[in-house]
Amino acid sequence: MTKGSTRERLTQAAFSLFDERGYEQTTIDDVAERAGVGRTTFFRHYRSKEEVIFPDHDRLLATIRDRLAGSTHATALVAVSDAVRIVLMHYLDEGELALRRYALTSKVPALREREIVSVARYQRLFREFISDWMGDTGTSASLRAELMAANVVAAHNHVLRRWLRGQSTDPVAEVDDAMREVLALFPVPSVSADGRGSGGDGTTVVVLRSDTDIDALLPSLRHLLQGDAGS
Fold first, then answer.
1. Which residues pair with 197 in a beta bridge?
2. Are 212 and 128 in contact (CB under 8 A)?
3. Which of 25, 179, 187, 225 is the one with CA 20 to 30 A from 53?
4. How far apart are CA 54 and CA 98, in angstroms?
5. How many CB atoms neighbour CB 214 within 10 A?
6. pTM strictly above 0.90
7. Is residue 191 classed as helix, strand or coil in its secondary structure?
8. Non-local CB neighbours of 228 within 8 Å, separated by 6+ positions
9. Model confidence over 49-103: pLDDT tens digits?
10. How far apart are CA 147 and CA 198, in angstroms?
C-alpha cells in the first residue's frame, strides 16, 4: 500500500466516522481501525484528528507565498489575483472532500474556530505583501494594506461559499470578476526610480488586459483616477 493510498484511506475513514458518530465522539483509534492501520501509521500522516480536516494549509500558504514573492512591483496586483485563484482551485480540485468539510465545520464550533485562524493566516500574508508593495509607512498606509488584504480574502471566501452551497456554476470566472471589483477600490501607488512604491503626488495608470467590455470597466477606472486626484 502506498503512502498516498494510506493517507486517502485515513481521510475517507475519518470523514465517514465524523458523519456517523460526530466529530467529538470519534477518536484517532477509531479512524485508524476503520482505515485498517495502526495508531502509529495515523501519526505518520496526520499530527491530530483536526489535521485530517485541514491537511494542506501549510503547503498552500507556501505556494501562495512563492507566487507573491515571484512578482515585481508592476505585476503585484496580478500576483494577488493569481494567488487567490490558486486557493480557490485547491478547493475545487478537492471536490466532494471540500463539500464534506464545509458541512462538518458548519456544525462543529471548534472546527469553525480553526478555520477562522487559517483565514487569518492568509490575510496576514496578503497584508504583508501589499504593505511592502505600497512602499509607504505610517498608520494610514498600514490601514490601507489591512483593508486591501481583508477585501481580497473576503472576495475569495464569498465565491467559495457560493460554490460550496451549489450557487455558482463558474466559480473561477466569479473570483476573477470579484478580484477586479476589489482591486478597483484602491488607488495604485506611484513607482519610484528604484521600482518601489511611492507616496508622492501624481497619477499612475496601470493597464491590465481584461475580457470585460470597456464600457463596463469605465466606472472602475474613473473611481481610480478620482481617488488619485483627491489624494
1. 191
2. no
3. 179
4. 10
5. 8
6. no
7. strand
8. 187, 202, 203, 204
9. 999 998 888 899 999 999 999 999 889 999 999 999 999 999 999 999 999 999 9
10. 19
Task: Identify the CA nearest to 148 among candidates 197, 110, 100.
Answer: 197
* Residues 6+ away with beta carbon under 8 Å from 82: 67
Angle between helices 57-69 and 76-94 (to 10 degrees): 160
Rounded Cα gap, residues 77 and 155, in angstroms = 14
Alpha helices in 22-75 (DSSP H): 28-35, 39-45, 49-53, 57-69
- All three cell numbers of 195, joined, read 521600482
Q: Which residues contact 171 (CB under 8 A, 6 or more apart)?
A: 88, 92, 159, 160, 162, 163
- Spell 191-205 as b/e; 16+ CB within 10 A means b: eeeeeebbeeeeeee
